[in-house]
Design goal:
1137 residues, alpha+beta, Rossmann fold, Taq DNA Polymerase, Chain T, domain 4, 6-stranded antiparallel beta sheet, 5-stranded mixed beta sheet, 17 helices, 20 strands, elongated
């Protein structure tokens, strides 16, 4: 398996499609900074599934798409394809060539393709798992990976070793097994809960069968005890009521007085809190100013410390510079001594050179004299030879000239004919080319118009796509909102219907009577069910009615008494009844107080509450009796404004939000639920919600239809955009081809024009040369005979002079040998002279350098002294400023302390007042609780008496009257016995004839659940065994690979550092799959130690050694080295290479 090629288009700086082919061996990618080398590495990492934008040097993933330049348009997509040859089936796929492609669009949509088929990112990750390839694998080695190995987290270092060991897939499988194990444990836990519940049901059903047999026995004894106890309780209640009512009236007056006192104290506390808050703000400002002064003092103290450290550094530098000056002085003295020695040697050499020059001049003079004779004879011979040669040359030239002229005339004639032919051909070709250019220009203009049109259409389509995309999002959002609104309406309707059907939010007694059919048609339902109120006034009316809204309307008092007995017998609480036979119109009207209708004309006053309620006439008297003291107003401000104006006793003003203001004192208000949650008008409100739900469904259908239409238009526009984009690219390609062809034709035309001009000029020149050569030919022929005669005379004279010259040359050889020896001696002495002079120059230059260094050091010493003085001055200034700031700090600190004392005193006063108010409030609360308890007690006693009377009348046909109490009556014993009997009946419940069948059904279900639990327990055991097998296999494979990597690491490290020592270890006493990997290395013959003792370059080579060791165990299909040599110096780069 190996990397074959990489294709990049639109990724970062690659605007055009670019393909990189990778052959066997090493491929180097070089170039200047910014040319895109690292973008190639980013492209490989990206196509392998990198998800972090920061890893590929971008802020957002969309930044990898080519963003355009001044001359190139931005692209809408980035695409990278990686081709891997899988000839040995290393990858678990049937193809021998695997192409991985990743695309990213500006809409943030992305695609992954495997051999041009869409796939998931997980498919690609699974394909390359444990192959060494991946965005974080060791196939890409860069500087950050070196840092990760050396200084990264232990788990990051482990991941590289696990990839090499091939245990990543085992760890993934183990994670999946753990997830399944966790899910199985959850299933078992839930199943245990269900089994526990079913077991309870089975036990309950088995007990129900037995309870039915005891039911009748207990019930008979219960009836006897109840009659006796009820008579005694009725008399006892009547006696208790009389003193309790007197005490109740006294407590009500006490509560009003405490409320007034509490409000006065609350106002005083609020004023004290306002003053305390102002004082706290002033204290905060002073504290802030104090902190700023402290910060200034701290900063100046830091400046003083820095100045003192710098002063120490200057003193050390001065000592060092003085020492350097001393060393330079010693070196200058030594240099002067060497210069004097060299000058003495040079003077002695001058004397030897003078003697050698005298000897050379004598020998040279004798040689020159003899050479003059030879020279004269040679000059004579040379003159004769030159004359002969001139004669021969003139003769040869004349002959050659004659032949050359003939040849030139023939060539010129042929060339003139050729030029004529070429001119005719060029004129014909130019005409054909002009026709081609005209046709191409016409096509190019047509294509440019077409391209402009297509670009405009493409822009319009893209604008339309943008608009449609926004419309899609808006419609989608509206549909989601409508769905949510519809769902909310459905849930509210269902909840309200549930409340209506089951009376769930009604008192327990109302639910019991209505749901079990105890009223047998004599009940008109609850009062709220029979009333109609406009939505605006529902909350106010319901607040006014209070618990009476859920009271039951019955035809007669006897029916109410029967229901009371049922409630008592079943212990289902108390219920208020309105018997229609007791609410005669005349009686209620006679009880109504006169109402002040003038108040209805006031601003913000709406009406008396009973006037805003619609109901059947037979219920009108009930409504009037309940609401006669309640006046509906607009808001709380209106209520407070008119409360004191009403003269009637105990009138309550209720706002539309349900707040209550009474003209006799109490005010009720605060947060309240929506009026639609009330019981009055609930059915009407459900109908309103159902109507609104229907309307919402209609709107939702319209929105979904609109969404389909927009989606259809969007798809059409997207298809058009794709087609137009292809057409634009095709047209641009054609225009490029036309431009290239036109440029080529124009270039050829210019070349032909230049060639024609050149040929015409050449033709004219050739004709002139032809005439000139013809004239010259006529002059050459007569001079040939004279040149032949002169040649013979010069050859005779030359023979005689040559004999004389040979005898002179033989004599001069001896003189030259003597002169050469003298010259060689003189040259050696002068060479030695030049060497000494050069040495003296070098010593003088060194002396100048030492003098310059001495001067530079003096200047540095002066500058250091100046800086030292400045530091001393600055330190003194800072000390003075600190003293000033300390004075200011003390003043501010005193002011803050004074404010803190005042603040604490005011706060203590406020705390005392709050304690006093709390005591008043606690006293008021105690009185209120006592009052409430007494009211409940009176109400309960009255209700209990009525219930006892009605129940005895209904069940036994007896009338209960107040009588004397029996002294020895064991009320508690009888009540306890009755209570026990009722509890036993309640615990048994009614006789259930289907109990046995239900018991068998639940028992069967319990057996099935037990079987399911056993299956899950078995699956849990299998998963644990699977995890153990995976752990064992992974540990063995990791340990084996780790040992091989360790051995290779030692070898590679020693190839980098001769005599170096290195080792890899796993943390002891830990699981090999989780243990930390420890790296030890030493570059010399020492025991391996921690990496912190190595230099930066040695650390980098250590990490590279580990990566190379991994490659020796398990190489990846390719290895990219991205500037890993950056931290290495020249020495370590040599080792690396």
């Amino acid at each position: 398996m190996y990397l074959e090629s990489l294709k990049i288009y639109g990724f970062k700086s690659f605007a055009k499609k670019t393909k990189f082919l990778f052959n066997d061996g090493i491929t180097s990618i070089v170039g200047p900074n910014g040319c895109g080398k690292s973008n190639i590495v980013d492209a490989i990492r990206w196509v392998l599934g990198e998800q972090k934008a920061g890893t590929i040097r971008s802020e957002r993933m969309e930044d990898v798409i080519f963003n355009g330049t001044k001359t190139a348009k931005p692209l809408g997509m980035a695409e990278v394809s990686l081709t891997i040859q899988n000839t040995k089936n290393v990858l678990p796929i049937e193809y021998s060539e695997v192409v991985i492609t990743r695309r990213l669009f500006r809409s943030s949509e992305s695609q992954y393709l495997l051999n041009n088929s869409p796939c998931r990112l997980k498919d690609i990750q699974d394909l390359f798992m444990d192959t060494g390839m991946g965005p974080d694998a060791y196939s890409i080695i860069e500087l950050s990976m070196v840092e990760t190995i050396l200084n990264g987290k232990p788990e990051e270092r482990r991941r590289i070793f696990e990839e090499a060991a091939g245990v990543t897939k085992y760890k993934q499988r183990r994670k999946a097994a753990f997830r399944k194990l966790e899910a199985t444990a959850g299933d078992i836990l839930r199943l245990n809960d269900i089994i526990s519940e079913v077991e309870k049901n089975v036990g309950s059903l088995s007990r129900q069968v037995k309870r039915a047999q005891r039911y009748q026995e207990i019930k008979e004894q219960l009836q006897k005890d109840e009659i006796k106890l009820s008579a005694h309780q009725f008399s006892k209640i009547k006696i208790e009521l009389e003193p309790l009512i007197d005490k109740l009236n006294e407590s009500q007056d006490n509560r009003v007085a405490l409320t007034t006192k509490f409000d006065e104290q609350e106002a005083e506390i609020e004023e004290a809190r306002t003053k305390l808050l102002a004082l706290e703000r002033k204290l905060s400002a002073q504290q802030k100013e104090l902190n700023e002064v402290s910060l200034k003092i701290h900063k100046k103290e830091e400046d003083i410390l820095v100045g003192r450290e710098r002063r120490k550094a200057l003193e050390a530098a001065k000592v060092r510079l003085l020492k350097e000056n001393e060393e330079i002085s010693v070196r200058m003295e030594k240099n002067k001594t060497e210069i004097l020695q060299s000058k003495e040697e040079l003077q002695h050499l001058f004397e030897q050179i003078q003697l050698a020059e005298n000897d050379y001049q004598e020998t040279s003079a004798e040689l020159n004299s003899f050479e003059m004779r030879v020279h004269d004879k040679y000059e004579q011979l040379k003159k004769i030879e030159n004359q002969r040669l001139l004669a021969v040359e003139g003769l040869t030239e004349s002959k050659q000239e004659e032949e050359r002229i003939k040849t030139q005339l023939e060539n010129l004639d042929e060339r003139i004919k050729s030029i004529s032919r070429q001119l005719e051909e060029s004129q014909l070709l130019e005409k054909i080319r002009e026709d081609k250019i005209a046709k191409l220009q016409e096509k190019k203009t047509s294509q440019e118009s077409e391209l402009t049109k297509l670009n405009q259409e493409l822009k319009d389509v893209r604008d339309e796509l943008t608009t449609l995309g926004k419309s899609k999002e808006k419609v989608k959002e509206r549909i989601l909102n409508k769905n949510g609104e519809a769902q909310a309406l459905k849930e509210r309707i269902a909840l309200l219907k549930k409340f209506i059907e089951s009376y769930e939010d009604h008192p327990e007694g109302v639910q019991h009577l209505l749901l079990h059919g105890y009223l047998n048609g004599g009940c008109k339902g609850t009062l709220a069910e029979n009333l109609t109120v406009e939505p605006t006034y529902r909350r106010a009316v319901e607040t006014a009615m209070g618990e009476a809204a859920v009271s039951l309307i019955v035809d007669a008092s006897e029916q109410a008494l029967e229901c009371i007995e049922i409630l008592k017998a079943d212990e289902k609480g108390a219920v208020t009844f309105f018997p229609l036979d007791k609410f005669s119109t005349q009686r209620i009207k006679s009880d109504l107080r006169p109402q002040n209708n003038d108040i209805l004309q006031a601003h913000g006053v709406i009406d008396w509450a009973h006037n805003l309620v619609q109901c059947e006439e037979e219920y009108r008297t009930i409504v009037q009796s309940l609401l006669r003291d309640f006046l509906i107003v607009k808001d709380l401000q209106t209520a407070k404004q008119h409360a004191d104006k009403l003269q009637e006793n105990r009138i309550n003003l209720i706002t539309l939000n349900g707040e209550v203001v009474s003209n006799w004192g109490p005010i009720k208000g605060g947060a309240n639920g929506e009026s639609e949650a009330g019981v009055i008008g609930r059915k009407a409100f459900v109908e309103e919600l159902e109507s609104k739900l229907k309307e919402t469904w209609t709107q939702l259908e319209k929105e979904e239809k609109e969404q389909q239409e927009i989606e259809s238009k969007y798809q059409e526009a997207f298809s058009s955009e794709q087609d137009l984009d292809k057409q634009v690219k095709a047209t641009e390609l054609k225009l490029t081809d036309f431009g290239v062809e036109l440029a080529q034709l124009n270039f050829e035309s210019r070349k032909d024009s230049e060639n024609c001009e050149r040929l015409a000029t050449e033709d004219e020149s050739h004709k002139k040369n032809q005439k000139s050569l013809t004239d010259k030919m006529q002059r050459v022929s007569p001079s040939l005979s004279n040149l032949v005669e002169n040649k013979a005379q010069y050859e005779a004279a030359l023979q005689q002079a040559s004999g004389e010259l040979e005898s002179l040359e033989q004599e001069i050889k001896e003189y030259r040998t003597v002169e050469q020896d003298s010259r060689m001696k003189l040259a050696g002495l002068k060479s030695e002279e030049r060497h000494l002079q050069g040495n003296i120059v070098r010593l003088h230059e060194f002396e100048r350098e030492l003098t310059g260094s001495y001067k530079r050091i003096d200047e540095e010493i002066t500058a250091a002294a100046k800086e030292y003085a400045e530091l001393e001055s600055k330190i003194e200034q800072n000390k003075t400023a600190i003293e000033t700031d300390f004075d200011e700090h003390k003043i501010l600190e005193a002011e803050v302390h004074k404010l803190e004392q005042t603040f604490l005193e005011k706060k203590e006063e406020l705390t005392n007042k709050e304690k006093f108010v709390k005591a008043v409030r606690d006293e008021k609360d105690i009185v209120s609780e006592t009052l409430h308890s007494m009211e409940l007690q009176v109400s309960e006693l009255k209700m209990s008496a009525e219930q006892i009377k009605a129940r005895i009348k209904e069940e036994y046909g007896l009338t209960t009257k107040k009588g004397a109490l029996e002294e020895d009556f064991d009320e508690e014993g009888i009540a306890e016995r009755i209570h026990q009997q009722k509890n036993r009946l309640d615990s048994m419940g009614p006789v259930n004839l289907l109990a046995l069948k239900e018991y068998e059904k639940e028992k069967s279900r319990l057996d099935f659940l037990q079987t399911q639990k056993n299956d899950l327990m078995e699956a849990q055991t299998n998963l644990n065994e699977t995890i153990q097998v995976i752990n064992k296999t992974a540990r063995e494979q990791f340990s084996k690979t780790f040992e091989e990597i360790r051995k290779n690491f030692v070898k590679v490290f020693q190839s980098f550092f001769e005599n170096g020592q290195a080792n890899l270890k796993l943390a002891p006493d830990e699981d090999p799959l989780e243990a930390e990997i420890v790296i030890e290395a030493a570059t010399k013959s020492k025991r391996p130690t921690a990496l912190t003792l190595l230099s930066g370059g040695e650390k980098a080579l250590t990490a590279i050694s580990i990566l190379f060791a991994i490659y020796l165990v398990k190489p990846s299909p390719f290895c990219i080295l991205d500037e890993v040599d950056a931290p290495l110096d020249d020495t370590n780069i040599g080792r690396f290479v």
